[in-house]
Design a protein that fits this description.
alpha+beta; Arc Repressor Mutant, subunit A; 2 domains; three-stranded antiparallel sheet; two-stranded parallel ribbon
Length: about 170
């Protein structure tokens, strides 16, 4: 159910190494959605601007070091119980490491396809690092259908984290 508390009311963008990142907030100014450069979500310019320096600083710090924890960012909770369980689990995957859809599914007592669908609906990529979940036979999807831009973003994030762990 959509309520005034969890509808998008404010937005901002900021530049990152992977391009412009969109930040969308609820009426009570909690982060509700993060969009990466390839996203086809509503343009942040269509909503009144709200800049939350602490969130921008936290995400920027991640790009300085993927070990910077993003789980302290206050955000709106609009997740199903299954998503909560799975997103909590994927937060445990360390930068530079991956898990397969099947491995996550076995722990969550689900199927790999269900895991993929839940990850596709992830409103907060980076905060819930769905890019660290890969297919058994390769990269897998990212943000829905595997397009070149999405695959490039997922591969960039994985390479960035892996290179940071090797230093």
């Amino acid at each position: 159910m959509t309520t005034r508390a969890n509808t998008l009311a404010f937005a901002d963008t900021f530049k990152s190494p992977i391009g412009d990142i969109g930040l969308f907030y609820t009426h009570d100014k909690k982060l509700a959605r993060v969009t990466l450069p390839y996203s086809q979500s509503p343009a942040p310019a269509s909503l009144p601007r709200y800049q939350c320096d602490s969130i921008i600083n936290a995400i920027s710090a991640y790009f300085d070091s993927p070990y910077h924890r993003l789980d302290e960012i206050e955000h709106a909770e609009v997740l199903t119980p299954f998503q909560c369980k799975m997103y909590k689990l994927i937060r445990q995957i360390q930068p530079g490491h991956t898990a397969t859809y099947g491995e996550i599914a076995a722990i969550c007592q689900s199927g790999p396809r269900g895991v993929g669908q839940a990850l596709r609906a992830n409103p907060l990529p980076l905060i819930y690092p769905c890019h660290r979940v890969v297919s058994q036979s390769g990269l897998g999807g990212f943000g829905g259908k595997p397009t070149h831009d999405k695959q490039t973003t997922k591969q960039w994030l994985l390479n960035f984290e892996l290179n940071a762990t090797c230093k």
